[in-house]
Amino acid sequence: MKAAEFNALLDKGTVPGVVLLHGQEAYLRDRILARVRSAILGNALVEFNLETFYGREAQGEEILQSWRTLPFGTPRRLVIVRDAEKINAAGQELLAEAMSTPEESACLVLAAEKADFRKKLFAAARSRGAEVSLMKPFESEMPGYARRMAQERGLSLSEGAAQRIVEEAGEDLLTLAGEIEKLSLVVAQGRLVSEEDAARWSGRRRAASAFKVIGDAASGRLPEALAGAERLAEEGEEPIKVLSLLARQMRLYALSDDLARRGVPRQEIPRRLGMAPMFSQEFMSQADCVGSRAAGFLRPVLDGDVAIKRGARDPKRVVEHLLARVALASRCGKRRGARDRSN
To answer: Domain 3-133 class?
Structure first.
């Protein structure tokens, strides 16, 4: 079945005991996984009732044991296996046999980019549960996806804005989600997004976007960050807006560091912070570079914001100074690496 058909099942409150998600559309996969998780676990104790495995690393026996573990405080458990096509042959055989008597108290979700239905595991999953094909959408479907994504972020797209964003994203839903994510950070909720707004923050400006500038600084790439800031200034970007995004990123880096110190699994941190999946890996790399220093930048950013608004300092110099401070404090910069090696 298609993703839309499976979503209709979820709308009715139906979650099969075995679900096979296959195909290369990562955005649809992640959305369905989130919906299945919500439907089965709700606000239940996730740490006791959710387990995620990765096919290359997991053994069939441990996946099966988790699938057969009784839930705690909720009617069902959820077991997710990513890269299911990489489970070894013995593990695939074991799980295929177990599907002849599926567990009623747990849902097993197999996620694979490619499902070879000549193999017993995928054939059994298709016959015993729900098989969901995650194919890339047609070009004609993309504007509809753009509008729905925008609605979820409290935005409304004009016809021109939807068309412009789709032109940038092509037929890739993760890229489209990234474009909508950017708009949600710079356009007030409830406001109609115009074509001019979309053009201003479109992918064509990604190389010089404020997000990349801040990411370069966090990663210790000071020359790139300063060059990007210069391009933004030439294009008329307001320094106050750059500072606002800088403060936001520093807060997120600080929260990421706090969650990591509290033992939250690395792959779980971006989700807890509401991060779009397509940004997760890059964000975590940047957060690793800044680490616990992130919280210390919030005060200087606020002071810079106040100084600009009072006309006490040159806005461009304030931005450059703060970017330099972040880059020089980064664990990942060449300058810092050289300093560390000399000690």
So the answer is: alpha beta
The model carries a pTM of: 0.55
Convert the pLDDT of each residue in 10-58 to its tens digit.
888 888 889 999 988 888 888 888 888 888 888 767 778 888 888 888 8
DSSP 86: G
- Would you say the CATH fold of 209-330 matches that of 3-133? no
Instruction: With beta carbons less than 8 A apart as the criterion, state whether 322 and 293 touch.
Output: no
Q: Are 19 and 112 in contact (CB under 8 A)?
A: no
Are 18 and 102 in contact, with CB atoms under 8 Å apart? yes
Rounded-to-integer distance, Cα 181 and Cα 219, Å: 21
Asked if 234 and 285 touch (Cβ cutoff 8 Å), the reply is: no
1's tokens:
């079945």
Under 8 Å between Cβ of 175 and 169: yes
Q: Which long-range contacts (CB under 8 A, 24 or more apart) does 36-45 make?
A: 36/10, 36/78, 36/107, 36/109, 37/78, 39/10, 39/13, 39/15, 40/15, 40/74, 40/76, 40/77, 40/78, 40/107, 41/74, 41/78, 42/74, 44/71, 44/73, 44/74, 45/72, 45/73, 45/74
Label residue 206 left, alpha or beta by phi (over 0 means left) and psi (-120 to 50 means alpha): alpha
Per-domain boundaries in the chain = 3-133, 139-205, 209-330
Percent of the chain surpassing pLDDT 90: 12
The CATH class, in words, for 209-330 is mainly alpha
Architecture of the domain defined by 139-205:
Orthogonal Bundle (1.10)
Q: CA-based angle 163:10:51, to the nearest 5?
A: 105
Task: Please name the helix (run of DSSP H) or strand (run of DSSP E) that holds residue 121, with its range, or none.
Answer: helix 120-128
